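Tutorial sheet, problem 5. The two components below are modelled jointly, 221 residues in total.
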Amino acid sequence: DTGVSQNPRHKITKRGQNVTFRCDPISEHNRLYWYRQTLGQGPEFLTYFQNEAQLEKSRLLSDRFSAERPKGSFSTLEIQRTEQGDSAMYLCASTTGGDSGGYTFGSGTRLTVV
Amino acid sequence: GIQVEQSPPDLILQEGANSTLRCNFSDSVNNLQWFHQNPWGQLINLFYIPSGTKQNGRLSATTVATERYSLLYISSSQTTDSGVYFCAVARSTPLVFGKGTRLSVIA
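Model answer (structure tokens):
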């Protein structure tokens, strides 16, 4: 068990470009969450998966954002046509199924849109 | 949705001092967790504590679910305790985070 792994750690992109982040959860965890955190704020929920099924999406997740979790293992979060307001830390967490239990977070991907 | 308020927003302590961080929430929950975010951004899960009291070394936490608050106690603080402490709650998935308490422990 190597914990939750996120790649890349940092990403700088020009406005209008597409970016994709990857999250590898703890292998026995079947729930995977994406959060976004801006400076001075707590993490805000974006979306989550139970195995390969995307069960909930926040209103924060505009149509430029898409997330997948093929085969219920790793997940990707893609942002199309990036805007400066997308600059943030993108965090991934995993947990065992159900509404209880502790979340384990990855180290995050820091996105800067210039 | 559930509202989460944390206090104080900022706290400065001398090394060795004790502190209490508070988390109030607006609705009944079945999931409450405390996290520490270190200066590099890593969120570390400290406690899963929807009710009752738990202790882990110098840290302990108490949640009084019927009164909708939780407390995190840090004793004999060390410089490595610096960072932001978040409380997060949920009735069901997903967790909703407060804005955190920024703790600075000075030697």
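Marking note: The interface with chain A takes residues 4, 30-31, 33, 35, 40-45, 48, 50, 86, 88, 90-100 of chain B (CB under 8 Å). Full credit if you identified this.
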